Amino acid sequence: MNEIYSELLGDIAIFGGINQETINIILNDALLIQKEPNQYFFIENDIAENMYILVSGEVEVIKNRNNTQYPVTKLHKGDCFGEMAILDHYPRSASVKCVNKCTALQIDINCFDEIYQRDVKQFALLQMNLGREVCRRLREANELLFQNEIENQVSQIISL
Q: Given CB 3.0 to 4.6 Å as the disulfide criterion, which of 7, 51, 66, 151 pairs with 83?
C-alpha cells in the first residue's frame, strides 16, 4: 500500500515537509476503508479516534439541527476530514456521508503517538500542518459568516 498512496499523501498540504520514513509509518498503520453511496464515515457527536484522507469519491459534510440535516461542504480526492479529532480529542462536530462510492485511508490517533515516539520534529511538523488546515477552514468559515452578515444587513436596509 505504501507505494500506491505515498504520492497521494505527498500532494496533500497536511503532509507537507513530512519525510518518507514518517509517511511509511502512517501508511503502515492506515486502514483502507471503502463505503457505498449514502453510508457514513462517522456521525456528528461520535467518539473521534481517527482522521481520513479521501482516496476516491466524494463526501458531504453535514450538520444536524432539530432533526434536519444541513449540508456544509463537499470534499473530494485528496481532501482530509476528521482531522480535528487528532488535535482536540472532542466528539465529531459533523457527519460525513458518501455521495458516491468512496475509498479513504483511515489514520488512527495512535499513529501520531508512534510518530511522536520515533521523531518528535516530524510529529511537531505534522501537528503544525494539521493546525494550519484547521485555521484555513476557520478563515473560510469566518468569510462566509461575514458575507452572510453583510447580506442580512443589506436585506434589512432594503426592507425598511
A: 51
Look at residues 137, 87, 91, 93 and name the one whose alpha carbon lies nearest to residue 112.
87
Please state the separation of Cα 78 from the chain's center in Å.
10
Grid cell listed for 125:
511538523
pLDDT tens readout for residues 110-137: 999 999 999 999 999 999 999 999 999 8
CB atoms within 10 A of CB 111: 21
The amino acid present at 108, given as its one-letter code, is: D
Contact call for residues 146 and 99 (beta carbons, < 8 A):
no
For the four alpha carbons of 111, 115, 116 and 118, in that order, the dihedral sign comes to positive
Structural element, H or E, at residue 77: none
Q: What is the domain extent for residue 127?
A: 2-159
Give the rounded distance of the alpha carbon of 60 from its chain centre: 11
What's the 3-state SS for 20-63?
A: HHHHHHHHHHCEEEEECCCCEEECCCCCCCEEEEEEECCEEEEE
| Number of separate domains in the chain | 1
Question: Which letter does DSSP use for residue 111 in this model?
Answer: H
Considering the entire predicted model, what is its pTM? 0.86
Beta-bridge partner residues of 22: none
The sign of the torsion formed by the CA atoms of 125, 144, 53, 84 equals positive
